[in-house]
Structure formats: C-alpha cells, structure tokens
Protein 1
Amino acid sequence: MTDQLTTDPAKPAQRMRAGSMTIPLIPWVVAAILLCLMPYIFTANSAITIMNQMAITIIFALAYNMLLGQGGMLSFGHAVYAGVGGFACMHIMNMGDFFSGLPLPFLPIFGGLMGMGLATIVASFSTRNAGVVFAMISLGVGELIAACSVIIVVFFGGEEGISGDRTYGLPFFGVEFLQQVEVYYLIAFWLLLSAALMYLYSRTPLGRMANAVRDNPERAEFLGYSARWVRFYSFVASGFFAGVAGALFAINYEILTEENLNTTQSGAILLVTFLGGVGFFFGPILGAIVFTLVQTVLSLQTELWGFYLGIIFVATVMFFPGGLAGLIMMHVPALRMGKLGRLTVPYLKTLLPAAIGMMGAAALVEMTFHVRHAATGDHEMTLFWTTFDSHSLTPWLVAIAVTAAGFAITRATAPAMLDAWNDANSADGNVK
Amino acid sequence: MTAALELDGLKKSFGKTEIIRGVDLAIASGERHAIIGPNGAGKSTLFNLITGRFPQTEGAIRLHGLDLAGKAPFEINRMGLSRSFQITNIFPKMTVFENVRCSLLWSMGYRYNFWSMVGRSRALTEGADEILEQINLTARRDLPAGVLSYAEQRALEIGITIAGGADVIMLDEPTAGMSHSETDYIVELIRIVTEGKTLIMVEHDMGVVFGLADQISVLVYGEIIATGAPEEVRANARVQEAYLGAALEDH
C-alpha cells in the first residue's frame, strides 16, 4: 500500500504534462478542410440538402450536450430554444427595411440571442435541481411553448407556420444566397464557429465546474460554487447555440412550423445526442451524422425507418451507454498497446454474420409489413435488389433461414470475440 | 481576539428528536480541535450544521465573529471554511489533477468565468501541482480519481479541502475505514497540510485524536460534557464513564 503512495520526485516528465490541456488543433483544421471540400465531393443538390440538415443537427446536438453531457441536465424540451430562435429569424427576414440592411450571415446571432433570452428565463427557475424536477420542468415548458404555437399566431403563425425569403438580406460580398451551395458555406462557417466556441467553453473555469457539478453537486458547493448558478450559465449558453441552430434552419428551409419546437423534435435531439455519446465532445457530432443519414437515406428505402431507428436507439442505451463515441473510444487502449489488429478477424467472424442476421430480420419485418399493408392484389415487392412475390412461401423460408443462420453463427463466435477483446486489452505477459 | 469558530447554544431537532441539545464551543484560531464521542452522539450532525448542510433549530454559529445563519454551503466556503466528508466525496470521473484544480478556481478569483482557458493559467496548474506534491499524489496526476485506492482518495479529499486556501479546515472522520499504516500516513499528512490553520475534526480513532489534537471536546447525546487538553479529557471522570472507558479497553 505505502509504496503506491510514494511519489518519485525524479520524474520531471510528470511536471511537464502540465501543458497536456492545450487545445489540439489538428482535428479542427481537418474538419475545416473537409467542410470546404464536401460540396466538391458530393455535388448533387440532394446531397447538399442532406449536409445542411446534418450541420444544423450537429450544432443543435452539441448545444444540447452542453446540458446533458457537460452539465448532467436531462431536458425534454430543448427544441423550444432552437424553434424560438428560428421563428425570431423568420420574423427578421420578413422585416423588409431592417433585413435589407442586414447581411444574412449575421442573422444567426439574433437567433442565438433569442434562444438565450428564453433560456435565461426558464433557467432562472428550473436549475435548482438537475434531476427529475429539472426534466419535468423542461417537459412542461416544452409542451407549453409548443401549445403557444396555435395560440400566439402572430409569432408562431398557427398551423401553417411562418415563411420568408432569405435573399432579401443585404448581399454579403455580392452573394445573395440564392444557391443551395452558398447556404451550405454559410452553415458550415457557423458550424465551425459554434463547435469551436462550445469546445472552448468546456475548457473555461465555468465549463470545468459544469462537469464538477454534474458529477458531484454537493462537493462543488463546498468548493465555493453554487451548483444552481453553474447550471444556470450552462443552460443559457446552451440556449444560445440552440438558437443559432434554429436560425440556420430558418435560413436553410425558409419556413418554420410548430414541428420545429414540439416534443417530437425535443425527443429527436435527445436521441441524436445519446446515440452519438454524451461522454465525449465529438459524440453528438457522430450522432447527428448517423441520425441524419438514417433519416434521409433510409427513409427513401423504407417506410419503417423510424422503427429501425428506435431499435438502434434502444440497443445503444442497453449495450453501449457511451454511444458511438464511447464505442470508438473503447478501442483506444488496445490501439495504444498496438493490439488493435488482433481484433479484426474475430470482429469479422462475429459482426458480419450478425449484420446478415439483422438484414434477414429486417427482411421479415418488411415482408410482414408488405403483406399487411400493401394494396390488395399487390403481391410483388423488392427487397435487397431482389423482386419476389411476398405471398409465396419461398422468400419467407429464405429470410427465416438467413436470419437463423446469421444469429446462430454470431452466437457461436461471440465467446471467441470476447476472448480476443480481453486479450487485446490486457498488457502482454499477464497470463489469465 | 475572536474565536475562529464559535458555537452558541446550538440546537438541532429532527421532528421531535433533539439531536444537538445546546452546544457551546469556542475554537481559537490556529487550534487543532477534535470532537469525539460515541456513535450516535451527533458529531456528524454538528459538522453538517456548521457547514450549512442543514439549518440549525436554535442558537448561533459564528465564523471569525460572523453569523452563518441562513448561509448556503458555497457562501460559507467563500468565507474561509472548508470541509471533507465521512464518505469520500470527490469527483470520481475527473482526473486527480482536475479535482484539485476545480477546488482552486473560486479562491483564485475565476468565479463564473467563461472567457479564459483553464489550461492556459500557469498559476492554476502550478497551484494544483503544488497541492498534489503535498498530498503525494503527483504520480497519480492524470488518472481518474475514481480508480485511486481508498487511502489515496482520502488523501485527495484532504487535498481538495485545503486547496481553496480556507483557514478553517473541518475533517469528518478522515481515517475512517483505514488500516493502521494508512492511518499513520494520513495523520502525518493532516499535520503537515493544516500547519498554521484552524483544524476541527470528528474522529473515532483515539490514537489519531490524542496524537494530533491540542484540544478535545467530548460530545455525548448532543451535549459537550468536557473540553480540554488531551490529558485533562483523558483524566475526566465523566468522559471515562461515558465513552473513553469502553473505547480505551478495546485498544
């Protein structure tokens, strides 16, 4: 025991690590270059639309994670701050005189301020606790403001929502934002700026104390910090960036409706953030990318995309509470020991059959759906590039066989994968 | 000279049960004062009253002559009183270094600052490293605090408690659950890091109390039955009857 407590003073290396908190620049530079190049790689208009949606979701998810991941506050009504920010920007777009003197790239500042203003009000009475009380207040406020959308028609525009035209703004160095790609660069700029600011925020005294309050509010209080005020500031900052996301939505789609601030939207952002992983800064970014892809690409393939998304979410919560980011970061120790390669073959042996099994299961789901819901007489369906008759027996037998075989192989090879995992994560020489 | 900490007719009831039944105590600045007593005597309750964890029913608590009534824990901390907990209370997911750095933030004047980078401040880094050196945890600097051994976590908690520069340090059973060698180690640590400060501790281990404290108060059923230097308390008949007799036989 005592030998553990002694320190070797002859280790200057330990003193030098003081600088380990310096901000790593490389990921940011890579991200910036990638953002600039994306429209040249994916040139289609639909691709740019998806990328815009993705970038907006990323900002929103990062803002949400300031609450959930950094501050430990579970909000069920965060879409409200983005939505209200967006509505405010819609109204600014419709203010002819003012908007014609305002370059469009500056508009998100107003959305942010609006989101921040609303967050200040709500945070002032909801941040005393971080637990159930906070979650319930957030849900209540979310419902309240969503209900206001049909009551305060002047601001929310009732059921049709509010629409506007972004091109009426003051041209920004000649750019009028008629083209989708011009909007892309505007959003990309705000994405980079917001992400950088949110990252830097987490490195400030207040950002660090947000973590401290999340982990142990009582201890933080006995260190001189009011847990309530720390939560308050996190909430306000999060409200600002949520408002920025809402403003970008307004710029991109030129219409906002009740859908932008209802609880479905609030639930979606919780899902996105959790899917990506709340424990790491980049988690929500991954979550937003995957979610947007599933939402846009998968929804073109199947009507049941929400069903699959739900399964992915439940599986994430149950088996990988760290989300996608946690899943990736799990492999860092093995990578550091140079043993990541040992996992490749066991992974292939287990995960490939698992994927095939899941595709089989998905086929069964799709076929059931087709039999139950297709128009009468329509027996033909196409699945995995194969067209067949959903009422004949053969495809069912094939799908069942594929599913069973896939999962059986997965089950048989899983122990070997676990052994490989343990092997890759234990230092060499440690015989089990 | 005003006492560092003064309790004046302090009472606390939970419902009809009176736990603290009128405590008067003055602890001079720079004194090492131990509060001992049998289980259920109200030691931890007394601690929690002083540090604002819950409000007293009657009486007054004064820190450097200032009344603490109605003050939240964070306000009391800012007035120069810092405490540790009986059950280890640290930030388990943060690194050891960050635990200490967080406890330096307020006293270094950062308050609710959101425009400076904590990693850029040499004063913060050096201050935190200095504390780590004092509590001998430099080698554990970058590990999550949750993976430290129990004794190391207790040492870290003491580090966090003293880091903010408070001049009144309250330790709630700092050696609870430790082996003999660990206890000796922590006692020595406490002696060093509380040099020149007022130390108030609740303790069960007689060896710790008699070795470390200048003054001892014995709390029995919510009342202080004796206060004095260790030898006087040891010789006091009421104390022997109430507590020490049984405890000393065990040792």
Protein 2
Amino acid sequence: MTAVAIDNVWKFYGDFPALRDISFNVEPGSCLALLGRNGAGKTTLLKILAGLSKPGKGSVKILGEDARSQSTRYRTGVLGHGIGIYDELSALENLRLFASLYGVPRPVQTAEEWLERAGLDRVRDGLVREFSRGMRQRLAVARAFIHNPSLLLLDEPFTALDDKAIAVLQSLLNKARSEGRTIIMSTHQLREALELASDVALIARGRLAFRGERTREMLDDPGWLYRNYGE
Amino acid sequence: MASKVEPSPALIQTAPRQVKAGFLQQAFAIAGKDLRSEWRTKESINASLSFAIVILLLFSFAFDVSSEFSKEISGGLLWLVFAFAGALILNRSFARELVNDCLDALLSSPASGAQLYLGKCMSNFVMLLIVELMCLPVFTVFYNGLWVSQAPMLLAIFVMGTWGLTAIGTMFSAMTVNLRLRELMLPVLVYPMMIPALMAAIRLTTIVMAGDAVGGDDQIWIRLLIVFDAIFTLLAVTLVETVLVG
C-alpha cells in the first residue's frame, strides 16, 4: 500500500492557485524532503496532508484513507510552523493532554518518558511560558512523536532550533527512519534534509517541478536541484 | 540513512500502541485543559465578572430599584448582563488556540471537530455559570430579588439558559476565530441568534425573581429553552467540523 497518494491536487486562495495539479506518491518507509522557495506551496500541501485544509480539486489518501479520517489522524504526527503547545500548561500537562487525545495507554508515564528523551524531565512541572525557545521546540517535537505515528509530517522542523533541539530531532528522525516510519518534511536546510531523505520533491510556484530519489549528486551539491528545476 | 527502509506491517495497518479514546473522554480532556489554563490566568473570568458587576451597578443608578417596574425588568437586566459578559468569555474560547498554532495541533489530533466544540462548550459553560453565580448576590443586594424560595428553579433556568448561550456562542466563536475583527463580529452575529433563548430565560427569571413559582402557562418557556439548547447543540456538533476545516 502507498503511504501517501496525492492525485491532481489543486488549492486556491481566492482566485490564486497555491497548488497546481500536484500528483505524486510516497512509499511506506521513505523519507521525502519537500523542497521549494518561500511561497512555493510546501506548507499548503503539508496542511492538506495533515487534514487541516481540503484541496480545491483532486484527492489525497494517507495509508489508503482520507486525510481527515480519524484513523489517519491516529497514525499521523504533525509538527507545523507553530509549536502547538500551551503556554499556561506545564510540560507534563501538555504532553499528557496530547497523549490522551491520541489514545496513548498510560498517558502520564508516556509523557514522562518523552520528557526524559527531550531532556526536559527536570522542568516537567514548569509552565511552558517560562521556557526558553529551544526548550519549547523540544517539547513540540516530543508532542509530535508521543503516539509513535506511522507517518510524520514536519514543516521546516529544523528552523529556529538550538543545537540541543536539532540533536534531539535528528536522533528521533533517524530512529523513525530505522523503524520504517514514513516522513515528509519541508525544509530550507538542504544539507540536513538531503542527508536524511530517500526521496525529493521540489515545488516551484505551486507546481511539482521535480520528484525522484535523492541522488549522490544532490548531496554533493545541494543547490543543484534548484539550479536545474527551480525557477 | 538515505535508502528506503521496509516498514513493519504493524506500522502501516494500525496505529501502534494506541486505543481509540472515547468521545466524551477527549471532549473532557479539552474542557479540562481550558479550565486549567483559565484557572492560571483568570483572563476571561476576571474581565467578564468585573464587566458584569459594573453594568449591574450602572443599571442600579438608572432605575428606581424599589419600584414595581424594576421587578418586572429584573430578568431582562440580569440576562442582558450575562449575554454581554458571556461574549467576553466566548470571544477568548477559540482565540486562545491561535497562540502557538494550538488549533492546528488540536485539529490534527484524532479529536473531531464535534469533540473540540463540546469540550469548549463545557468549559465556557462552567466559566459563565461561575460568573452568573457570583453576580447573583450583587444583583440581589441592588434589586431586592426574592428568588431564595425558588433557588432550585432559578438554578435550573441558569443552567438551561447558560447552555443555550454557550452552545451558540461557542459555535460562532469557532466561525469568527480567523477574522481580524472577531471581537466585534462575534456579538453582532451571535446576539440575534440568542433571542429565543434569551426571551425564555428572561421571562422565567422575572417570574422567579418576583418570588413566584413557574406556573402551568409558563411551562412553554421551559420547553422553548430545552428545545433551543437541543437543536443548537445538535446543529453545532454536526456543522463545526466544516466550520473549522472547510
């Protein structure tokens, strides 16, 4: 079964087509780097995949089901532009809330385990509003991973992370890759993304400009793809 | 790390190590989160309560509280105050989810729009009811309310009327969450829709505030409140997913 099937997807904001006839598949266990310049349509596509927005035309299937179906959302972890955690709750309360929403058994213990993995166990009862940016980012990463999702949708996950948060995220992504989870991440950090990715898709002005496997050539020269297929 | 890794079948077929959370369990989790946040900040309750008390005070200057006329309008005064003060709570309901894009995090979780709505409705209901109950002694002092002998009926009217306000107000809070002028738009949109519930609650409260029992002829207002609450809750639960996701 295909992990993600995107078929002739269009998305309009008013009359402006943010996505134009995008079609491609993502196989289970692969890691797709979704590349493109600012405003190309990466976030719009990821929002559609996450079930946060509906395509104007076309269809999206996640593991054979509608992107907005409840069973799809149980199997999908989303880390968007915003960190998606509550400032007025403690780190533990935030993770416990999302563990409960995702039906994770033993939500408190699971939340405590993830706080330890994110290096936040010593501030578990501290309110998020008192955290540094890096600590908040690590908590957001833990939130996205807490239910062991089969599919990870990450929108610029490395942006504005401190060294420790990057290390936590890279370790989690490597582990997810080794377990055969499917990852789709949009990013401007070409080198980090291409090192991790098995596949690449480049979007330019809402169109799919390139879709293929990540090659040695791309790793050696991350700008190659933009020079040949970007605008 | 770049090659494809064969996924285990369990990863593809099922959600690993998860059980489907119950409908009400997820709604309660969202309500609990909202109430916990509010308990820490007291943003909505402080604003709403102080606004309500100021209006009650101003109304007491505007009317002769010892006259028979003021008794006849007591229900109206009280529910207008609740409606205005409630708008402050309802406005914050979905707006608080915009900070850190928490609304996207909730919508991408398995909680449905209906669960999110019901959770928000419950927390708004609790907050507004707290404000109402705290306003009641102030109102009694200013307006000589004689409701004590009818306290259970008054509480029932508060519960039914407040659920009506929050059921419809929470839905409109979801509809206006992404509008730039939502603080203005919410009351403009929501007050006309509240009229049937407000009419019923005002009529019943006026009777109770006069120290009278709700008689047979007035049962129609109770039925109106119950039907209003049921219809708008059902409508909102059905439509809120479309409102939030499109």
